[in-house]
Structures are given as structure tokens and as C-alpha cells.
Amino acid sequence: MSQPDRNAPYLLGHDVGGTKLAVVIADRNGNILHKVRRPTEADRGPEAVVATLVDMSREAMARACLSSSDLAGVGVSCGGPLDTETGVVYAPPNLPGWDEVPLKAWLEDALSLPAFVENDANACALAEWSFGAGRGFRHMVYMTMSTGIGGGIILDGRLYRGPNDTAGEVGHMTIVENGPACGCGKRGCLESLCSGPSIARRAREKAQAAPDSLLIAFAGGDPDRITAETVMDAARKNDPCARQIVDETARYMATGLGNIVNVLNPEIIVIGTILVKAGDLLLEPIRDYLRRETWERVYDTVRVEAAGLGDEVGDLAAIAVIKQAVQTEGSS
Ligand SMILES: [Zn+2]
Predict the structure, then answer these.
(1) What domains sit in the chain, N to C, each tagged with a CATH number?
(2) What's the half-sphere exposure (Cβ side, CA atoms, 13 Å) at 160?
């Protein structure tokens, strides 16, 4: 068997989600050559899921007419907690039964390629930094606003992980003392206020007292069906209740971003998912409130932008992991 070549032109990426697996082959500029998707079926256990990933990798290589000698290695984006050095995954909430799975070792054995495992939030941060809105910056904070709020931090041109690979958990900054309960066990975290479900919950509470609000009309008359998207749609139609929720969301976000900016002095904060869909409706008030939270000189340095990769971020996250790993190895 030939030695893997870290200078090989193509990269293999594995996106391991709770419901879906994606295997992607791309070049170093993030152009995707081939993609294979299958359901995860995590209840089959980690060995079976890894066997599927290996099978999908072989299928993707065959379809792209490549052999493993054309690939520099495999990057894996997976729910944490996990250890990036050993590549062991420790019971991610979305992968029941994955307790201490040596994912890196299994993939390296099966594919004869170097494998690098990264938690999905950090992998998405690397993707936005390598191929998206953060390209070209040395100091970037990435944040996703979806079911939860996750993030990743690029400092001085590299991903900052901390000793436990948990750095970048921007969703669990306390924003409101004794605020709403958060899934992490604390109260008043940014995630408990500004994740998709949290925005919807605040909107439902407000809509109770405003039966004429478009929030209820847009949810088909059923307040339980109000989502973050309903809020943005109603705010665009100038519904006062929805505007208030958007304003509150921007204020909470700016409080969190202000803390980040004052501590880390990033050049850019890239925010995904809900913010991409909301656009200026949310981005502009966030920038306005952020001005009050930061020193002028620091505020003038930092840009707050919507993520650039859209739904492609998942596909490119694992590719960015391997791209970064082989470049870092090459330079050290
Ligand atoms: Zn929390």
C-alpha cells in the first residue's frame, strides 16, 4: 500500500449527522466533485454507521474516477463532545450509543487515509473561514442560529479549541440573569433567548396578549405553530408584536456579540441560518445595538455579516476540516 500524500489534490469529507450522512469529494477550493447521501440510522450502532461511511467513500471515489492516492485525507464533521487529538467521539446527543467511539482510528484503518475529526460547529466555522464569508480574515468568530446556537473561533489564523475542544460555545454565554431555562442546565443563555425555538417561544408568549397580531394569522390561527420564520415574515409586514420580538432578539444578540468583541477583538463575526434568512431585518438592529456594547475603535474594526455558504455549509464543513489539517501539518 502506498503512503498517503498530504499534497494530493483532492479531499474527502464525512458529515455525520443524527439523521443523515454525507460523503463529499472536493478540490482544495471547495469545488465539490461528487456527493453521496444516505440516512444515518444511528440505532444500527457505530460500527455499522462507519461501515456505511466507508462504503459511501468508495462509491464517491468510483463516481469521481479517483483512487485513494488522489486524496490527501478525510475530514469528519460530527456532533461533539469529541477529542480532536485522539479522534474519539464521546456520546453526542444526536448519536445515541456512540460512547467512546474511536472514529479516527476506524476510518484510518478502513480507508488507509489520515482522518481528522472535528465537532460540527467548529467544522462549520472552518468552512465559512476557508470558503465563505470569513475568507481572508485572521480573526473570525462564527455563530449559527438554528435549533441551538453554536460557534467556532478562529484566532491568529487558526481554530482555537481550548484544552477540552469546547471553545466557541457562544450560545451558552449568560445574557439574562435567571432568564429562561437552557438545554445545558443553566438559565438565561443566549441559546435560551435567540435560538429558533427560543425566538418562537418568546413570540408565542407575546402573541397571547395580542390576538390580532399577524403572528397568529401567519401561523394559520394556531399560536403553537409560530416559528422564528413566522416572526420574520410578520415583522416584514410591520406587525408591532413581531417587530418587538425582532428588536429584543437583536438586543440579546448584540449583548452576546459585544462580550465576544470586547474580549477577542475579531475582524469579522459570521452568523448563519436564521440570520441569513432574516437578512438586514435582524442584521441592522444587531449592528446598531452592538455599537453601544463596544468601544468605538473596536466597533469600527469588526464586521458582522451573514454566513456565505448557505445550505452548502454542511457539505463543506468536513472538507474544510481536512483542508485545514493537511495545511497545518504541512506548515509545522
Ligand atoms: Zn446554555
Answers:
(1) 10-119+317-331 (3.30.420.40), 133-308 (3.30.420.40)
(2) 17
CA of 1 to the centre of ligand 1 (A): 47
Q: Cα of 118 to ligand 1 centre, how many Å?
A: 21
Q: What is the pLDDT of residues 274-292, one digit of tens each?
A: 999 999 999 999 999 999 9
Q: How far is the CA of 190 from the centre of ligand 1 (A)?
A: 7
Q: Global pTM?
A: 0.95
Please name the residues in contact with 73: beta carbons below 8 A apart, sequence gap of 6 or more: 4, 6, 11, 12, 113, 114, 115, 116, 322, 325, 326
Ligand 1 center from residue 177 Cα (angstroms): 12
CA of 182 to the centre of ligand 1 (A): 5
- Convert the pLDDT of each residue in 170-220 to its tens digit: 999 999 999 999 999 999 999 999 999 999 999 999 999 999 999 999 999
